Amino acid sequence: MSHFGQHLLQYRKQRKMSQQELALKTRLGSQTIEKYESGLQLPDTQTILKLSTVLDIPASELLEKEYQDSPPLHLDPEIEQLVNEIGTKKAKLILRKAKEFSEEDFLRVMQMLYKIKYEEKSL
């Protein structure tokens, strides 16, 4: 089974969808979905975008080589809990953006968020 097929199967099951439901929502045949999941066939770019839209995940998630059901070992329990609370998609987005900021920029962003959350509500 290809990495793509494994990811497609995993995300479809997470969404509690059958192959037939996914096929219907993406306007593909259920045998086509079966071929993708078994690694017998790979979809074109347009089809990958359709699948990712229906599954509500970035296309890159379907194409990543490694998929992990659970967080890596030795992950701080508080971080694991926060990721579970906000969801993996949001956590990845936040972390990807956070690594682009310097420590000073990050502190300014945190101050702005604090002001938005607490100071503007009291006005």
Write a short abstract of this structure.
With 123 residues, this protein is mainly alpha-helical. The chain has helices at 3-14, 19-26, 30-38, 45-55, 59-63, 77-86, 88-98, 103-119.
Structural summary, described in words:
- The protein has 123 residues and is mostly helical.
- Helix content is 67%, strand content 0%.
- The chain is built from eight helices and no strands.
- The protein has helices at residues 3-14, 19-26, 30-38, 45-55, 59-63, 77-86, 88-98, 103-119.
- It is elongated, with a radius of gyration of 19 Å.
- Mean pLDDT is 84; it is low at 66-71.
- Pfam families: HTH_3.
- Residues 8-62 form the HTH cro/C1-type domain.
Task: Break the fold down into its secondary structure elements and pairings.
Elements lengths: L2 H12 L4 H8 L3 H9 L6 H11 L3 H5 L13 H10 L1 H11 L4 H17 L4
Helix pairs in contact: 1-3, 2-3, 6-7
Oligomer: single chain
Radius of gyration, in angstroms, nearest whole number: 19 Å
Number of strands: 0
| Largest pleated sheet | none
Summed over residues and divided by their number, the pLDDT gives a mean of: 84
Which percent range fits the helix content? Answer: 55-70%
Anisotropy-based shape? elongated
Between the first and last Cα atoms, what is the distance in angstroms? 57 Å
Helices and strands, in order, run as HHHHHHHH
Residue runs with pLDDT of under 50 for 5 or more positions: 66-71
Find the structural class using helix and strand composition.
Answer: mainly alpha
**How many H/I helices?**
8
- How much of the sequence is in beta strands? under 5%
